[in-house]
Amino acid sequence: MRKQSGFSLIELLIVVAIILVIAAIAIPSMIRARIAANESSAVASIRLVNTAQISYTNTYPTVGFSGNLANLGGTSCYPPTSSGSCFLDQQLASGIKSGYSFSVNGSSSTPNTSYQVIASPMQPAQSGVRYFCSFQDAVIRVNPTSAISTCDTTQTPINQ
Q1: In terms of residue numbers, what domain contains 51?
Q2: N or C: which end of the chain has fewer CB within 10 A?
Q3: What's the pLDDT score for residue 23?
Q4: Is residue 1 part of a domain?
Q5: Quick check: is 136 in a domain?
Q6: Per the domain annotation, does 3 fall within a domain?
């Protein structure tokens, strides 16, 4: 009789079961790490928007703060204008970056003396858990439970 080489069906099933157990342990950790990375990116993006708004209002004092993200971005930056100042990259200026959606609102006065930037997870509990915002004081604020509609001093400053 000739001896067969290879693995038996039972041995293969045991290996597959071990791989599934390891995957079941690792996947939740990977999801938490992705959420933490997206939230970190959102905070950094809000810092960039704050810096861009300060630069924008210094560059265009008759306009004041930008009323939207598109004015802070731009594709044709020679020469920069108040409707395409190129202070932000195109991805952030489009309003979507790293699982978060960004919006900028300003007052309707001229010059615009206020603004607020709000970052919300595009898929809550999957792309991010917390909501972030900032306004002209440049302090980043957080709401861990619900969406932010107005950013003001009632929102909790983030621990930095």
Answers
A1: 10-157
A2: N
A3: 92
A4: no
A5: yes
A6: no
Within a domain: 57: yes
What DSSP string describes 40-109? HHHHHHHHHHHHHHHHHHHH-TTTBS-SSHHHH--S--SS-BTTB---S-HHHHTTEETTEEEEEEE-SS
Number of domains in the chain: 1
Q: What contacts 24+ positions apart, CB below 8 Å, involve 92-97?
A: 92/45, 92/48, 92/49, 93/69, 94/69, 95/69, 96/122, 97/41, 97/42, 97/45
| pTM, to two decimals | 0.85
DSSP secondary-structure letter at 8? -
* Position 1 pLDDT exceeds 80: no
pLDDT in tens, 57-103: 999 999 999 999 999 998 888 888 888 999 999 999 999 999 999 99
Contacts with 76 (C-beta within 8 Å, 6 or more apart), sequence order? 84
**What pLDDT score was predicted for residue 110?**
85
